[in-house]
Write a structure and sequence with these properties.
The complex is a heterodimer of chains A (203) and B (177). Chain A has 203 residues and is mainly alpha-helical. Chain A has one domain. In chain A, 83% of the residues lie in helices and 0% in strands. In chain A, helix 5 packs antiparallel against helix 7 and helix 6 packs antiparallel against helix 7. Chain A is elongated and about 80 Å long. The mean pLDDT of chain A is 80. Chain B is an all-alpha fold and 177 residues long. Chain B has 2 domains: 79 residues, Rna Polymerase Sigma Factor, Chain: A (Orthogonal Bundle); 90 residues, Arc Repressor Mutant, subunit A (Orthogonal Bundle). Chain B contains 10 helices and no strands. Chain B starts with a helix and ends in a 10-residue tail after the last helix. The chains are: A mainly alpha (203), B mainly alpha (177).
Chain lengths: 203, 177
């Protein structure tokens, strides 16, 4: 049997499979889209309400209560960290809305470009300026805020608490960068394919 | 009925079965597959607001379907756990089984199941090329949809043909590997 015969047989078998004639009516699609958008709106409202509320509470503690200097630094960092978080969420949301408005993007963009854009978005979420700002502010904030209340306690719980903050931060950085490296590897593979495209060969 | 609705119905009439096969190539479970198929249909309907006929309806429909499917599997927790491979890596890592008769294989649903399992282990770019090849598209059309050059697509197709011929002419000896 030649290669063509074998592959043609499989191809014919593949094409013989009949579907279930699945069809969604446009009205049904519109209803479903409205539902999805309503769900997204609920999540947005929850996040936009929760993070600023916490930031305001920390800001209140910082401004109107008497705290040791190290704790004030911690509170300030927590306010900044939560603000960065809301900012990143807002930017991500804006990009998603843009993509939603540009409903024909999936048809205009080639599969390779589309996949690359998705990988770049995922890589950037796991590293870069926003990631570091959020991480440093939140973890350093926790560290400094916890320092003063634990001062009066025994050395062991304070050491354990602070050690946990460090371990948590280290695990977050390690995990995020591991993800980012995976995405970067995929981006490199796509770039190699595109390079081969231009050269007319195969990598 | 709007032009958008007309185009959507036309695309589904012509490529509806292919979209279902595509969804199955990306999602093994029936529930997930149905979710993906619905996502594809919604995206397809929405996309027709910007369809300018610079490419064929087929190219447009396949692009939308594959792009949505890739986004879907990137979100999926199950896919994150899998180590997706290129067609060359899969070809090297596993040797084909001994062959039986073509007639047996053609009649066997096992062969199709194995074919889907094989496709689901491929990375998205290779998965797109193999499913488009199986749908009967030539190298130029595959290049237009995926964004790779026709020459590169032709080389990939050559490899795919060899793998399909060696691996899937048997009625189900893959498990013995």
């Amino acid at each position: 049997m030649t290669t063509d015969n074998g592959s043609d047989t499989v191809r014919a078998l593949w094409q013989k499979q009949r579907g279930s004639s699945f069809l969604m009516e446009p009205e049904e699609i519109q209803k479903r889209l409205s539902r999805v958008q309503a769900n997204l709106r609920d999540v947005r409202i929850a996040i936009y309400a929760l993070c600023p509320a916490m930031a305001i509470w920390f800001a209140y503690q910082l401004t109107f209560t008497t705290q040791a200097i190290i704790m004030r630094v911690g509170l300030l960092l927590l306010v900044l960290g939560l603000s960065f978080w809301v900012g990143q969420f807002w930017l991500d949301n804006r990009d998603r809305r843009k993509a939603l408005m540009k409903s024909d993007a999936a048809g205009q963009t080639s599969c390779l470009e589309f996949y690359r854009a998705e990988m770049v978005r995922r890589r950037n979420f796991n590293r870069g300026g926003w990631f570091w700002s959020r991480l440093l502010a939140l973890y350093a904030g926790l560290f400094f805020t916890a320092w003063e209340p634990l001062r009066g306690s025994d050395a062991a719980p304070r050491t354990i608490s602070l050690l946990m903050v460090f371990i948590l931060a280290a695990v977050t950085v390690w995990g995020s960068y591991r993800y980012a490296r995976k995405f970067q590897q995929k981006i490199d593979d796509i770039d190699a394919m595109q390079g081969a495209n231009r050269a007319g060969g195969v990598p | 009925m709007s032009a958008q609705d007309d185009l959507y119905r036309k695309a589904v009439n012509e490529y509806g079965a292919a979209l279902e096969r595509l969804a199955r190539a990306y999602e093994a479970g029936p529930e997930d597959r149905r979710d993906l198929l619905q996502e594809i249909h919604i995206a397809l309907w929405r996309s027709f607001t910007g369809f300018d006929e610079r490419c064929s309806l087929r190219t447009w429909a396949y692009r939308v379907a594959h792009n949505i499917a890739v986004t879907h599997i990137c979100r999926s927790r199950k896919t994150k756990k899998l180590n997706l491979l290129s067609i060359e890596e899969l070809e090297e890592s596993e040797k084909p089984a001994a062959s039986q008769s073509v007639a047996m294989a053609v009649e066997s649903q096992l062969l199709l199941r194995q074919l889907y399992e094989f496709i689901q282990r491929l990375n998205p770019p290779d998965r797109q090329i193999i499913t488009l090849y199986l749908e009967g598209l030539d190298a130029a059309s595959i290049g237009e949809i995926t964004g790779i050059s026709p020459g590169y697509a032709a080389t990939k197709i050559h490899r795919i043909k060899r793998i399909l011929a060696e691996r899937f002419r048997s009625g189900g000896n893959d498990d013995n590997r």
